[in-house]
Design brief:
binds pyridoxal-5'-phosphate, alpha/beta, single chain
Length: about 350
């Protein structure tokens, strides 16, 4: 799952690394994300004028599949899907009819059929799925890669909806022509083999985000995030810090001003709540986060241990993306997807 620019980490770099590791199926949310990814991934048959025809002629065995979750997006954009060799996830009967008609004209179109098993977000309702099962010729222009659905409560292992959705998924799939199935997101994978089916769709787990269960998990953190200290000062009399002077500090407090702010996705809700690390010492945010700056109280550190030009670490071995999210009352997903464009980004072990 590399939607939202690979959860904020760079879809091209992430997908290139995953592809090199053997992953050949990618999901994005929008057609624009799909087009950008198609251009970036390897394409041994680039010389072919019509990539879709080339694929159907089986000339392109090593070409990754790119699925677009939001489907045809209510637009007349089927030609763009073909041109970029993207495969839509069809979420409505109308999308199915349009894509199938196009495929009937010239030899079939690959697709994923999405059915809603209880989340009430995207996908065909049980009633629509039942009707489609009764009119199978509507699918005659399609080659169905997978039937898929999505779990609402996968990160709560004991939530009754998990089993309910799985049972409904099996019942509805049985009404459709036989096809492979895709069901589990990251949380779903940990619900056990019954939830795995033919293709899992992990996103968060790839990027080091854990479920909220507190259970041990095998994922490693994959991001180190840090901000540069611009200035260090010792407060000479009791005073306030930052906009609104929301934090009072006493004389002698040592403060470090860091060049990271909410414009970088360092959320405003870290004001008087977030933490960073310097030389393994935990330092608190004092005052509000501003657009480009945030101030930490570094009094805990030995004098002269820190200088301007040094870094405060926001994500490291001691502070996971979930820990950081807790400080702001949010989830790791939002921390990563909010990461701004001003960070200088180094990718380790990726050639893209
Ligand atoms: C985002 C998404 C996923 C991945 O979810 P994670 O919790 O990040 O693993 C899987 N399937 C669908 C339909 C999604 O929208």
């Amino acid at each position: 799952m590399v939607k939202a620019d690979g959860y904020g980490l760079g879809a091209v770099q992430v997908a290139t690394a995953l592809n090199a590791a053997g992953c050949s199926r990618f999901f994005v949310a929008t057609i624009d994300e799909g087009i950008a990814l198609r251009q970036a991934l390897p394409d041994p048959a680039a010389a072919q004028a019509d990539t879709r025809a080339a694929r159907q002629a089986d000339l392109r065995t090593n070409i990754p599949d790119i699925y677009v979750l939001n489907g045809l997006m209510g637009a007349d954009n089927a030609a763009e899907f073909d041109q970029a060799d993207l495969i839509p996830v069809l979420n409505t009967p109308d999308e199915i009819d349009r894509w199938s008609a196009r495929g009937r004209d010239d030899g079939g179109r690959r697709a994923i059929l999405a059915i809603d098993t209880g989340m009430h977000r995207l996908g065909m309702s049980p009633a629509e799925t039942t009707r489609l099962g009764e009119e199978p010729n509507r699918l005659s222009g399609l080659s169905i890669d997978y039937v898929m659905s999505h779990l609402a409560c996968a990160d709560e292992p004991d939530h009754p909806m998990n089993q309910e959705q799985r049972a409904l998924f099996d019942r509805l799939r049985a009404l459709l022509p036989p096809a492979r199935a895709s069901f589990a997101n990251s949380g779903g994978i940990f619900l056990g083999p019954d939830f795995h089916y033919d293709l899992a769709r992990p996103g968060a787990a790839l990027y080091g985000v854990s479920r909220a269960t507190g259970a041990p998990e095998p994922m490693r953190q994959c991001v180190v995030l840090k901000g540069k200290i611009l200035q260090i000062r010792v407060v000479d009399s009791d005073s306030g810090v930052g906009y609104g002077a929301t934090c009072r500090v006493s004389a002698g407090t040592r403060l470090a001003t860091v060049a990271t702010g909410y414009a970088d996705g360092y959320l405003r809700s870290f004001g008087n709540a977030g933490h960073g690390y310097i030389n393994n010492v935990r330092v608190p945010v004092v005052g509000r986060v501003s657009m480009d700056l945030v101030v930490f109280d570094i009094s805990e550190l030995p004098q002269n241990a820190v200088n301007s030009g040094d870094y405060v670490e926001f994500l490291n071995d001691r502070q996971t993306v979930d820990d950081l999210a807790d400080d702001a009352g949010t989830i790791g997903y939002e921390i990563l997807t909010a990461l701004g464009g001003r960070y200088s980004r180094d990718y380790i072990g990726v050639s893209a």
